[in-house]
Q: What sequence folds into this?
């Protein structure tokens, strides 16, 4: 006689059900790991985020608020609405400073871009020596203040070695930083000397991304170096060149320290660039509300120029397949 067991058979997942359960457990494990990675990433990002909030976002918002006030550090800010902007529009010194800044930007960007592109192409085509790249970058390692002081001594009309050489050649001494005609081009070329190596290395990095077989194919077809430059190098370098132009334009509009240590805005406001005028209004005349309004105007101008450059140069797209 057989006695049947009264306990129900165990129901263990088999086949597809077991596989589904395994996948669910795996997903839960990955999700837990992702959460851990997310917390670790947030921990690493936190210092940079804190710095962004404290030293960039908050001062920007505070500056926008102060641009609508009359504020001199000694008394509470007084709301004046658009008075500072109306004053700015009617201020001839503001427009003169903007014109001087534009003159500096055009000279600096034009010379620096052409020189940096030439250096980058030479580095790529003739030599890729790390030592030579280090030498090219050396002026960029010097601060703007030190560079300005060094060139101030070199170009001094009476005692500068630059004018001593010019005088030795039988040419009249040139007041590079004391003449209204020479001052802004001289300051622009000083900054070109300091930044051209860094810009050249950025372009050199872009050139390294261009496949070498394109040049080999062009040589087989009989293309000259000049033709390869315009037909291959420039089109494929366009995205990197566009980003470099955006960076250099923004930096050029913010020129300040070179002017401060060489000409202090002179002679006769010939080098009174916008940043130096803003500084003088804020810390020289304690008109922080008006200085903030000019800073906001500069922010709007730079934002518009950046967007326009990005769209015209198609910086987000590349011709590489």
A:
């Amino acid at each position: 006689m057989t006695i049947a067991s009264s306990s129900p058979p165990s129901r263990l997942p088999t086949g597809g059900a077991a596989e589904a359960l395994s996948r669910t457990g795996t997903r839960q494990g990955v999700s837990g790991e992702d959460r851990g990675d997310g917390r670790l990433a947030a921990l690493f990002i936190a210092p940079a985020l804190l710095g962004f909030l404290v030293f960039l976002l908050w001062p920007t918002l505070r500056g926008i608020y102060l641009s609508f006030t009359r504020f001199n550090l000694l008394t509470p800010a007084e709301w004046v609405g658009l008075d500072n902007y109306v004053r700015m529009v009617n201020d001839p010194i503001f427009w003169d400073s903007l014109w001087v800044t534009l003159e500096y930007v055009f000279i600096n960007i034009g010379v620096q871009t052409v020189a940096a592109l030439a250096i980058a192409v030479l580095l790529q085509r003739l030599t890729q020596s790390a030592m030579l790249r280090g030498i090219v970058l050396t002026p960029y390692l010097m601060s703007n203040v030190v560079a300005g002081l060094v060139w101030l001594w070199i170009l001094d009309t009476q005692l500068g070695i630059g004018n001593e050489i010019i005088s030795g050649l039988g040419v009249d001494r040139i007041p590079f930083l004391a003449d209204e005609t020479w001052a802004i081009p001289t300051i622009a070329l000083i900054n070109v000397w300091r930044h051209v190596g860094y810009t050249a290395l950025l372009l050199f990095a872009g050139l390294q991304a261009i496949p070498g077989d394109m040049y080999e194919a062009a040589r087989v077809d009989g293309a000259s170096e000049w033709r390869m430059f315009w037909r291959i190098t420039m089109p494929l370098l366009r995205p990197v060149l566009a980003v470099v132009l955006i960076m250099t334009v923004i930096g050029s509009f913010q020129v300040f320290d070179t002017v401060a240590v060489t000409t202090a805005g002179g002679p006769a406001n010939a080098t009174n660039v916008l940043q130096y005028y803003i500084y003088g209004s804020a810390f020289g005349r304690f008109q922080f509300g008006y200085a903030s309004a000019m800073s906001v105007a500069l922010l709007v101008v730079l934002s518009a120029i950046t967007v326009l450059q990005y769209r015209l140069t198609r910086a987000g797209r590349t011709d590489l397949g």
Notes: The first helix runs from residue 16 to 66. The chain has a mean pLDDT of 86. The longest strand covers residues 69-70.
